[in-house]
Write a sequence for this structure.
């Protein structure tokens, strides 16, 4: 979405001298194959790629984009050594059957995977609690095929961590296990609006 993103990442390196710890980005991965090497050279520390399905038809229905470029972009990021995480939003009745395929795929590639409960972030108010695939439903599905163990020492990450046949996955259960009391996340949008909560309906216009 941002033209000149590689140059932008390179310029942000100057802020590390005064305390910036990490530069990460979230992407749909559509152009990642083209930019993975340049982003790595520019100093990007990590990237989160949204991947809600491994089924090409279903992926197009969810995103209106092709799956193949995203998978090729992920492979390109791995090839250049760019640290990578996969985020998957599960929606009941749409892609809930992708839990096991996504975990198996992530295990095979040794990529960290995080499932995210469907959150009411849509401006059109189409969200419904019936669409949520809960953390417990995810765990029950995983237990039907894998050995699942909770990781006792949890990090400050919003994701609750589990070992799934020795591979670490996270579940961000914002709906069924809200972490508001421990949340340390803030967000500044590209339009200059400052939010102290993703569920906030209005931000502070810093401009």
């Amino acid at each position: 979405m941002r033209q000149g993103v590689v140059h932008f990442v390179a310029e942000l390196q100057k802020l590390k001298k005064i305390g910036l710890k990490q530069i990460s980005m979230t992407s749909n991965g559509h152009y990642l194959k083209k930019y993975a090497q340049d982003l790595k050279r520019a100093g990007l520390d990590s990237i989160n790629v949204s991947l809600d399905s491994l089924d090409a038809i279903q992926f197009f229905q969810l995103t209106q984009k092709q799956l193949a470029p995203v998978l090729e972009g992920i492979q390109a990021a791995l090839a250049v050594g760019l640290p990578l995480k996969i985020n998957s939003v599960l929606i009941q009745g749409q892609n809930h059957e992708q839990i096991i395929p996504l975990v198996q795929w992530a295990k095979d590639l040794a990529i960290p995977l995080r499932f995210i409960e469907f959150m009411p972030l849509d401006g059109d108010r189409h969200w419904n609690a019936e669409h949520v695939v809960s953390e417990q439903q995810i765990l029950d599905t995983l237990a039907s095929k894998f050995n699942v163990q909770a990781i006792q020492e949890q990090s400050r990450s919003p994701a609750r961590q589990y070992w799934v046949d020795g591979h670490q996955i996270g579940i961000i259960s914002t709906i069924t296990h809200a972490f508001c009391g421990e949340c340390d996340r803030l967000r500044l949008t590209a339009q200059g609006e400052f939010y102290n909560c993703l569920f906030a309906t209005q931000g502070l216009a810093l401009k």
User: Anything to note?
Assistant: The mean pLDDT is 90.
